[in-house]
Amino acid sequence: MSNVTEKDIRSFVDAVSGYFYQISEEQAEINAAFLVEGEISATTFDLTGYITLSGNFSGRVYFSAPRVMVTRLLLIMGEADRSEERLLDAVGEIANTIAGNARKHFGENMEISVPVTAATEHDWLQSVVSPRSYVILVKWKQYKASVVVDIQRTR
Amino acid sequence: MATTAQRSVFARYRNIIFAVILFIVADALVIGINFYGTFKANESAVSINLSGRQRMLSQRTTKVLLFVMYYQANNDEAGIERTLKELDLVVNLFDTTLKGFRDGDTVTGGDGKKVFLTQVDTDLSRKIVDDAYIIWNPYLDRLRPLLGNNRNFTQAHLEAAVSYARDKNLDVLRLMNDLTSDLEMVANNRANTLRWVLVFGFFVALGNFIYTVVFSMRNLIASDTELAAAREETVEILSTVREGLFLLDKERKVGSQFSSSLPQILRREINPGADFMAILQGIVEQKVFAAADDYIELLLGDRVKEALVTSLNPLTNVRISVQSQGGSVQENYLSFAFNRVLEQGKISHLLVTVQDVTEQVVLAQQLEQSKNQAKKEVEALLQLLNNDFGTLQQFISNVGLALAKINEELSLAQDAERNKDRQHTINTILRVVHGVKGEAAALGVDTLEAYAHQCELDMIAMREGGEEITGKHMVRISVLLEGFYERYSSLADIVEHFGRGFSGQDGAVANPVSAAGAAPQTNPIVDQITSLAQRIAKDQNKQVEVSCLLENLQTLPPKVASDLQGISIQLVRNALVHGIETPAERAARQKPETGVVCVWCEYLGNRNYDFIVRDDGRGIVVDRLRESLVNSGHLSREDAARLSDQEIAGRIFRPGISTAEIANRDAGHGIGLDIVLEKVNSINGRLLVKSRPDRFTEFHIHFSVAA
To answer: ipTM score here?
Structure first.
């Protein structure tokens, strides 16, 4: 996780925060930030979307949120369809927003994959992320979601 | 070089030049021939005209003779006179003209003016003229008595002339006809020749024209093709080459052509004729820009040799900062190379080659970093070798636990709802970091001590920055924590490696220094405290003697011993910074220049202990503490004045309180005593502080150990 700066992490979190603000005019605030280390694990919620980075950095950035939070988001968006598929799409959209911000922040030397989404078990992230990945918990309304930054500078 | 260029131009256009010369020569020749032909035609026209007149004159001579005879028969003197005058004229004309045909001479033309009659030049004409003279000479002899003003002729003379005229009239007429025909034929031949010359001239001119056009067109097409190919090659090169290439003119403008990679390398749009200096100013530091300006000036001037100033190029591996769309500033490294372009020996342009050398520079930096890292690791290793291995293991373990504690505090902060809660989180983390710093300092692990100090400063700035502590601060702390882990892992690896290297076969670990017999076995805690005290004393320009009696620590449970070790580190640090005076101050107070710090742990029996840290310094300066409490906003000036000295002294354990004038890595952040209090609480101890101005300060901790 070396050489990842606060600004780098903030670029991912700001994307999430901005997305929620755009939809609901209510920002998702950073609630806590810590590392995946020892007994402290990455917080996984029901639905997770992630992007894979390569170039100057390699690794993944995850956004994980509880189903109820995404449902609420769709409700505000006026979406009638709140099927599992649509919920995953919404998580994918947020991951895509993270990708867009990352592109702006890191410039052209960063290659970013299309978002991948999945319904996830509570310990899924813990099993896939590297030790000392950053976990940033964000709070929107009464819900919490996590942004997990597991990237490494390659040059 | 100029001669070569001229030669090259001549070689290139040689055929066209020859064609143009040929065209001029052929035209001049045709015009000359034409001019000559026209002249000859004019001559022929005169000859034909006059030979025709000769025919008429031969007939007119005969007619005049017959009229003379007629007027003679009728005794018409006037008629005779008039006709004889006419005879004079026509005979003279015929004779001079015939002479002109034979010899070439000036004669009277048809209009009465003098013209030059050229000598006939064909064999036939010459024979005709000769034949005409054979007839004309006897004819003229017969006419002579009839001619001139003093004529004196008889009837016989007249009859002889008329008779000869009648006899030879037709012969003369035929000869003059033949002459005319021959002259006409000559004229026709000349006209034909001239026509052929003109036709030839026309075809020569046409051929020349066609040759010139075809050759020129071919050359033009070849040249265009060559030019297009060259342009295509240039375009291909410029669009393929990875370097930024362009020409810089004396006005320092970018040339019309540049490689397509240039805008990408410079991270901005480049237009032909763009001001290079403005571009440069936007991407490099002002100091580099000024140096580059001078360097380009030198290169564009001809006073210095290019090779001599190459090493002065300030744009080699130069760092450029470019703002990305997202607002973040990206740093890249570029290398600009400048080469003079000469035209006729004069500098016309500079060829500029720009390379993105970020990767090379980053690799070099990484290599340098690796070297430094390796050096630091070796230094750290050497420092670590001064410590007992068990102590090191304990230290690594303590740091690991401390970092885990920080991370736990960070994760628990998700439940912090208020600023105050987050302030508490920061204070807790600060205490942990300060503890690590103290332990690192005691062991002489500078890298970790320095980083812990930096983290402290960052967090104190957050705490005292006046801003509400939010999740954003937590992100910053998590990044600091990651840095801590990074350094901790390196150290842990070294200690692990160290342990493997010096472990006995039975797994027992021996101190390498001790094993070598270089130093006597000592109490590691005492060593740590002593070396820390001496290091701080040196930093503070003070002298100190440390007296420790800590054997009892080894009998205590590890947790308690570790806490007391932490306490002793913080209190000795405090003693050195706040208590012990400088030698000059001590001398002024009639005290020995070397201060004394005592640390001891005393067993009182029945599982009770006293742990004491005492220095013979200036004691707790209550006034300074009171001032500090006011300045840090912990107390209003009124409250500070109202509280007793004892109450003021009691506040030294509050976080953020320090009496140090200058904050540095050893003191000034108001964290140390906060930790002491926390650790005393952790061992369920009771803390008593005693102090007398200019005499001493003593921290007395009483605790019990469970059975």
So the answer is: 0.94
